[in-house]
Specification:
Layout lengths: L3 H19 L18 E3 L4 E6 L18 E7 L5 E6 L8 E8 L7 E8 L3 E6 L5 E7 L6 E8 L12 E3 L4 E6 L22 E6 L5 E8 L6 E6 L7 E7 L4 E5 L5 E6 L4 E8 L7 E4 L9 E5 L9 E7 L5 E2 L5 E2 L5 E11 L4 E10 L4 E7 L3 E3 L3 E10 L4 E11 L2 E12 L8 E8 L2 H6 L1 E2 L1 E7 L11 E3 L4 E4 L1
Parallel strand pairs: 1-3, 10-12, 27-35
Antiparallel strand pairs: 2-9, 3-8, 4-7, 4-9, 5-6, 5-8, 11-18, 12-17, 13-16, 13-18, 14-15, 14-17, 19-20, 20-23, 21-22, 21-24, 24-25, 26-28, 28-31, 29-30, 29-33, 32-35, 33-34
Amino acid sequence: MLTSNFLTRTAIIVAVLMLALSGVQPAYAVAPANDNFSNAITISALPFSDVVDITEATTEPGEPQPSNYSPQTVWYSFTPAANGVVIADMAGSIFSDTNLNIYTASGPGIGDLVFLGSVSWGGSISFNYQAGTTYYFQAGSIDGVGGELHFNLQEVPPPANDDFANAMIITSLPFDDYVDISAATVQAGEPQPSCQFDPLDKTIWYAFTPTESGSISANVLNFSFSSTLAAYTGSSLTGLTEVGCSNMGSPLTFQAETATTYYFQINEAGGLIQFHLDATPSPVAGFFYNPADPSIFDTIQFSDQSYDPVYVGFQSFAWDFGDGAISTDQNPTHQYTKDGDYTVLHSVTTYDGRSASISQIVQVRTHDVAITKVLVPKSANVGQTRTITVFVSNKRYPENVEIVLGKSVPGGFQWIGGYIQFVPVRSGNRTTAFTFKYTFTMDDASIKKVTFKAIATIVDARDALPADNEAISSPPTKITK
């Protein structure tokens, strides 16, 4: 039984023989007319579009491949009569792996091409062209799949607000505008911004007249390192007075007065940019202080943490400590004379007049306990259990206090016990007793005497005067066997 593949091949052979006998020649695909550099299609007017099947396109000997390798390419050339800006792309091609290279030439041959730039995978590329210069476009497919290729070239017109007289009027805030500045020009007599160090490249203009006074902030997004933004007042191009200047995407912020027209000049190398103008956001006031649990014995360090989102900076600082004291330092210190809850108000003002404030409650609590005495027996025998008593005074706040007890050993102290006990506030010389039971040992007898050391720690609070939180028994307890 014959297979389907065999029958198909047989049918094809029979068809070809019948065509040969009839004198009709079969049609074969041919290379595009502009397959070679020397046969590049000449573009005589813009906009220009062309569609060509590159299935049988080739690369000729010596053909450059500066970006992605394209095994199938076609050529176009363009010689403008005047200066301008064009954008080229391969939009509409049936394949996505497009590759487009742009050249000028130093001579007549393909080996004289000078590479200018490229774009791949469906992108577009714009560039400034010069009158009388011939530009060559090499279009192709990276993967060599062939098929229908589209080549498009069109002129980019200058932006509508290219000139000062045609500055775009901003009627309300916030304002955003997106514009391709590639074809923008520089007018004769146009001012050079103070922060623009190179000659102006391409400029556009905006105008804004605020209905009320206040700080405004402008910036350019999608900027390059040559980007400059300047603001002016005045009524003519040659009579402008600069208000401020910023570059490389930094915000330009200043105090705008009602009924005054401000002109914004943007200088950029080219491409799509975004101009943003809005009322300046308020600064954010903030601070912290140390120690976080102050007492009347502490000199508190207050530290400003305020933030200006547009980086104008702060002109003044104000502090109200809640006890009648004030300060204008950025990072002041202050000491309270009495315990209490104090509302600390911190205010900041920027150089352009914006202000913000914040308050925090500072709790001043002076915790203080003291070990007044460690009572021990004058003498003891080995094996004898005796009472050790630690007396703690407290005249401020009821506290939970931990006492740790240690005994002397050669080289220091060895801790032998400890516990936590509530210590109320007691007036006069009244104290709270902590009692420990200790059994004396042969090791104690070997050194013939034992000194006891007690350390007091307030639980969940910081002792404002810790120097009296330790005490050593005196005289030491004499030990006999």
